[in-house]
Amino acid sequence: MTSRDHTTFEQHNKILNDDTARAAYAAEHNGYRPALLPRLLGSFLILSGNVIYGKEPSYLKFRAVEIIARVPYHSWDSAAYTLMTFFFFDEQRALSLAHTSRFARFAQDNETMHIVVISRLAVFYEKIGLIRGSLIPLWFAFFYFWWSYTLYFINNRWSYELNYLFEQHAYDQYSRFLELEEEALRSRDVPSDYLAWYGRTPADQYEFFRSIRNDELIHRNESIEAIAAEKARRAAKGGKK
C-alpha cells in the first residue's frame, strides 16, 4: 500500500494535470480486470447511480458519488483495526495492516474534502431534495461499507477491486464534466473555508474539479497497488519458511 504525506500527494496531483503524464499513469492499470464478484457489485452501484441521477455528471450526482466513495476507506480502516487484534504477535502482518490504516485514513480525509465542498456547490447550483440528495446515497453508503468490510475479510483483493471499479467510474465522470462544462467552470469560483483548511487553493471550479479527477485516478491505481503489495508480502513470508 502506498503511503503518502500531504505534500507529496498534492505534488502528484498537480503532475497529473499534464495530459501526457496522466495518460501514462492511468495506463499502468487501465487493463486490470477484477474478479466476477467485484464486477457484479460494481456494476450494480454504477447502474443504480445512472438510473437515479442520470448518465451525465452533475453537482447532485457528484454529491451522491462522494458520499459513497469515502466509505470503503473507512471500512478498510475498521477491518484492519479488527484484524490487528489477532496479529499483534506477527510483526510483518501488523505492519501491513498499519500501512492499510494509514492509507485509508489519508484517503478518507481526501474524500471528505470532496463531499464537503461539492455539497456546498450542489446546494448553490442545483435543487437538493432530501431523498436523492441524502437518503439514497446514505442507503447505498451503508451497504457499500458492509460489502467492503466483509469482502476484506473473505479476500481483501475483492474489496480493493470493487473500489478500483467505483473510482474508475468517478474518474470518468469528472473527466466528462470537465469536458462538457469547461467554459462555465472557469467562470465560477470555489468559496470554501474547508478547502482552504485542507490546503488547496484552486483559482476556479475547473481547477477544483480537475484536482478531484486526479485524486480519483490516484485512488484507483493505489487500490491495485495494494493488491500487489499484499501479494509481495505473502511471497516474502512464504520464502522465509
TrEMBL record:
Keywords: Electron transport, Iron, Membrane, Metal-binding, Oxidoreductase, Respiratory chain, Transmembrane, Transmembrane helix, Transport
InterPro entries (UniProt xref): AOX (IPR002680), AOX_sf (IPR038659)
Pfam families xrefs: AOX
GO molecular function, one term: alternative oxidase activity
Entry superkingdom: Bacteria
Location of this chain's protein in the cell: Membrane
Transmembrane segments: 129-147
Cofactor(s) the protein requires to work: Fe cation
Entry's Gene Ontology cellular component terms: membrane
Protein's name in the database: Alternative oxidase
Origin species: Candidatus Kaiserbacteria bacterium RIFCSPHIGHO2_02_FULL_50_50
